[in-house]
From TrEMBL:
The protein's name: Aminoglycoside phosphotransferase domain-containing protein
Organism: Sphaerisporangium rufum
Residue span(s) of domain Aminoglycoside phosphotransferase: 64-255
Gene3D superfamilies the UniProt entry points to: 3.90.1200.10
Record SUPFAM superfamilies: Protein kinase-like (PK-like) (SSF56112)
Classification via Pfam families: APH
InterPro entries hit by this protein: Aminoglycoside_PTrfase, Kinase-like_dom_sf
Length: 322
């Protein structure tokens, strides 16, 4: 599944439909400029991700740059933006993440302002020089975010593990278009996806949404992790392992994708059956969610999830031999 050959989906960085700066209420724009202490002279809307909120790199009078996210306070995703503010505010300086400058509510919107990262999304295709930069950042992240700097987050087994699954539900209500392999192995896949949560908890702040559009690489070769909206407390192997389906989507075989993680202690130490279960869980999650109706103003999510499901199924086949 090469990254560039499939013209049926938009490229990385062009999947979200977001409002332009000038479309925002005047009171909100004035508030943001006031808090930043300078007029906004240019705003580059960022198309990465799927959320329909504001995500813009602002250039201020005087030349400074700031990255701003914002969402109406009553939007269904506003709680995620609030969670991101809590998590980002507690990230240690050594974490490979942009600094949160402030967050606030104004004109009925919730706003976050970050240090701007002048970067691009990594290419995760085989042999890409971006891969060691990203894996190094994820390894450092696991170290700098242990012990978890944030109180009150759910443990992974109670948080992301409840969402990251799908085969049990699919076994209960099997869609007519489910593939033959999936249908044949459905009961075994439903059992398999239930194993990893017993190994998911821990004392690390887990980002929980590692994808290339949440990663930026600067021209100095530094990788940054953005979008801390789905954090939980858990075992550090999860963020590192989450790169694998994205490397498969970018053209790696499952075995080659796994090889890129060798040497990262959290990956080296995780028991093999836990990874097999985790792969199956991702496959189930994407197989199930890609069949749900598209959320309003999020046109590309389901097609992305279909490609992700195919990658995670390939990974599961490789690990199980089924
Ligand atoms: N600090 C930053 N500096 C520059 N660009 C950034 C910064 N943070 C994020 N971006 C860019 O903006 C895009 C959207 O940001 P982010 O992922 O935080 O938003 P989101 O609305 O939560 O998206 P998602 O749909 O992934 O949940 C990212 O894909 C990235 O390209
Ligand atoms: Mg994002």
């Amino acid at each position: 599944m090469p990254e560039t050959d499939d013209s049926s989906h938009p490229p990385l960085g062009a999947t979200a439909i977001r409002p332009a700066w000038v479309e925002l209420p005047e009171g909100l724009r004035e508030f943001i400029a006031g808090r930043l202490g300078a007029d906004v002279v240019a705003a580059e809307v960022q198309g990465g991700g799927f959320t329909p909120g504001v995500a813009a790199r602002l250039r201020l009078a005087g030349g400074e740059r700031v990255f701003v996210k914002a969402i109406p306070d009553d939007h269904v995703l506003a709680a995620k933006y609030r969670t991101e503010a809590l998590a980002a505010a507690r990230l240690p300086r050594a974490a490979p993440a942009p600094r949160l400058r402030w967050h606030d509510t104004a004109a009925g919107w919730f706003v976050l302002a970050f240090d701007d990262i002048h970067g691009r999304h990594p290419r995760l295709s085989p042999g890409s020089p971006d891969i060691p930069l990203v894996t190094a950042a994820l390894a450092i992240m696991g170290e700098t975010l242990t012990p978890c700097p944030l109180d009150g987050l759910p443990q992974a087994s109670a948080g992301r593990a409840r969402m990251l699954r799908g085969w049990r539900e699919l076994a209960g209500a099997t869609p007519p278009d489910l593939g033959e392999w999936e249908r044949h192995h459905l009961p075994a896949l439903a059992d398999l996806e239930e194993l990893w949560p017993a190994h998911a908890d821990g004392d690390t702040l887990v980002h929980g949404d590692i994808r290339p559009d949440n990663l930026l690489i600067t021209h100095h070769g530094t990788a940054y992790v953005v979008d801390w909206a789905q954090p939980c407390q858990g075992a550090a192997w999860q963020d590192v392992t989450d790169l694998i389906p994205h490397m498969i989507m970018a053209g790696h075989t499952p075995g080659a994708a796994e090889k890129t993680l060798v040497g990262i202690p959290t990956w080296d130490l995780v028991p093999a059956h836990v990874i097999t279960s985790y792969a199956a869980s991702f496959a189930g999650y994407w197989t199930r969610s890609s069949r749900l109706p598209a959320p309003p103003a999020v046109p590309h999510l389901r097609a992305y999830q279909r490609r992700a499901a195919a990658a995670a199924i390939a990974w599961t086949k490789y690990r199980t031999g089924w």
